[in-house]
Design goal:
By secondary structure, this protein is mainly α. The chain contains 21 helices and no strands. It starts with a helix and ends with a helix.
Length: about 475
Amino acid sequence: MAHRPDAVAPLLAKPDAAAMPPPPAKRNKYPFFCAVLASMTSVLMGYNVAVTSGAQIFMAEDLGVSDAQIEVLSGVINIYSLVGALLAGWTSDRLGRRLTIVLANAFFLVGPLAMALAGGYALLMVGRFVAGVGVGYALVIAPVYAAEIAPASSRGLLTSLPEIFINTGVMLSYVSNLAFSGLPVHLSWRVMFAAGVVPTVFLAAGVLTMPESPRWLAMKGRVAEAKAVLDKTSDTPAEAEQRLLEIEDVVMNSSGGGGGAWKEVATKGGVRRVLAIVLTLQFFQQASGIDSVVLYGPRVLAMAGVTSNTLLLSLNVLFGVSKAGSILVAMALADRVGRRPLLLVSTGGMTAALLVLGSLFAAFAGAKDDAAVAAVSVAAVVAFVVAFSVGFGPLAWVYSSEILPLRLRGQGAGLGTAMNRIMSGVVTMTFISLYQGITMAGAFYLYAAIAAASFVFVYACLPETRGRSLEDMEELFHTK
C-alpha cells in the first residue's frame, strides 16, 4: 500500500492550542487581604463581648458591683448592639462600607476606654453601651464588605472570616483575663478593658488603605472607580468585566436606594422572601441555644457531674478551641461542598447532640461523681459546638450577606443582625430561669426542637448559592 504522509501527519502534529481547554485561573489573593483587614474589627467585637467573663471578678471586688449588676452588664451588650446593627445599614449606604468599618473601630476605642476609667456602675454601663453599638456595626459591615469585594470563587471563604475572627477575639479575652489577673485588684480589670483599645487606631488606619466596595461605588455612580477595584479583586480581566456589567444592571434596575428598596418589600414577593430567609436564619442560629452552652458551659457540666473547677475551666477552653477549629473547616468547605450541604449537616448534628444532652440529664439527673455520664456530657457539648460551627455559625452570615439585593444589602443585613442579637440576648438572659423552670433536660429538648425546625427550614427553603455571583442571586430569588 502506498505511503500517505498526509494521513500520518495529523497524528504527529501538535494539538491546536485554541482547541485545548484554558488552564484554571489563578485565584487572586488581593481580595483575601482586604477581607482579612476588614474582618479584623470582628476580633475587637469578640474581645469586648467576652472580656467581662474574667474582669467581673475584680470589678465586683474593686467597685462593689453586685451579681445582678454583673449579669446585666455582661448580657446587655447584645441589646445595645441593636442600635449599631440598625444604624449600620443606613451608615454604610451613605458613607460607604470602608468608613463604616472605621466608625466601628471608633466605638471600640471609646467604649472600652470609658470602662477602663470608670469609677462606678453608671459609667461602666455607658462604656458598655458605646462598645455595644460597635458590636452591632461590626456584625453588619464586615460580612457585607467581604461579600462585595470577593469574587464568586472565594466568597464563602472570605465571608466566613468575621466569624473566625470573632472567636479569635473571645479567645484573646480569655488570655487577657489570665495575663492581667495578677495585677492589683484596682488595676487588673481596667487593664483588661484597656488592652482592647490599642489595636483600634492601627486597624482604622489600615482600613483606610483598602479599596471601597465596588458595588457601593457603582451605586453612587462612580463606575470608573468601581471598575478599577474590580480589576484588582477579580480572578481574571474577563470576570472583572462581567462583574461590572452585572452590578450596573442591578443598579440601573434598582428602585433608588434604601427608601425604594423598602417599598419593594411591600410589593415584591421575591424581596419579601429574601428578607424573611435572612431573619429566619438569624433567629434559628441563636434560638437553637449556642450561647447557653458557650457562656454557661461550666454550669452545665457541673450539673452533669464534673466537680473540679480547674477541669471545668479547662473544658471551657476546649469548647472555644473546638468552635474556632470547626469554623476553619467551614471556611475551607463552603466554596467546595456548598452552603446547603453544610447547613443540613450542621443543623442535623446540632439536633442529635442536643437530644443526647437532654436525655443524659433526664436519665441521670442529680448524679454526682459519675465519670461516664460526665464524659458523655462533655462529648455531647463538644459535638454540639462543632456541629454549630461547621455550618450554622459562619454560614448563616455568609448566606444572609450574599442573597440580599444590592439596594437592600446594608439595611437588610442590619435587620438580620438585630434579630441575631435579640435572640442572643433572650437566650443568655433566660437560660438559668429556663432550666430552673423546666429542668436542664427540658431546656435542651426545647433547643433540640428548634434545631430540628431549622433543619426543615434549610431543606425546604434554601437553594444552593455556591459559585453564583451576587448579581445572579437576583435571578435565583426573583428580586430584580
